[in-house]
Amino acid sequence: MNTLDVRVENGQRVIEKWDSVFEAVSAEPRRQLVFSLLDAPPNQSVPLPESAANPNVPIDADRLRQELYHRHLPMLADMGFIEWEREPLSASRGPNFEEVGIVFDALHSAVGDIPDSLVVGCQRLERKRQENIEI
Questions:
Q1: What is the pLDDT along the chain (135 residues), one digit of tens a residue?
Q2: Which end of the chain, N or C, is less packed with Cβ atoms under 10 Å?
Q3: Cα torsion for 7, 24, 93, 64, to the nearest 10°?
Q4: Nearest CA among 101, 107, 76 for reference residue 90
Q5: Distance in angstroms (rounded) separating the CA atoms of residues 128 and 134
Q6: 86 close to 68: Cβ distance less than 8 angstroms
Q7: Which domains does the chain have, with CATH numbers?
Q8: Contacts of 120 (CB under 8 A, 6+ apart)
């Protein structure tokens, strides 16, 4: 394989990885689950559906449980970002979790630069911004 072929192959692989990351974080329950897993110790699972719910928005727990079970959890598991159990319904970090977790770590690091319209209403980002102000 020549250098150009290797570059093309690597480029396509990276594009697919980024597409997976952005697809994973394109829905609120999946974002909340990633945040919850980042807040938990690396080898600990988090309970569902509560760990996938936005704490600022009332939820229909039964509906969220169904959405998690049939859509969100299988998608994240297929990407290797999480592993999940049906009984009791819970999730833990998967072998590729760092690929999606780093996006949220980067957001936390840059929280002072993020527009208020993307921070106010997100308890975790608001808390991180307040922590940075207090330092």
A1: 788 777 878 889 989 999 999 999 999 999 999 999 999 999 999 999 999 998 888 889 999 999 999 999 999 999 999 999 999 999 999 999 999 999 988 988 888 888 988 888 887 788 888 887 776
A2: C
A3: -170
A4: 76
A5: 10
A6: no
A7: 3-134 (1.10.10.10)
A8: 126
Beta carbons of 132 and 111 less than 8 angstroms apart? yes
Identify the sign of the CA torsion 122, 123, 127, 128. Answer: negative
CA gap 29, 53 in Å, rounded: 6
CA distance 108 to 45: 22
Kindly state the tokens that stand for 15.
């594009």
Single pTM value for the model: 0.86
Enter the tokens of residue 24: 């994973």
Which pLDDT score is estimated for 111? 85
Both structure tokens of 6: 């290797």
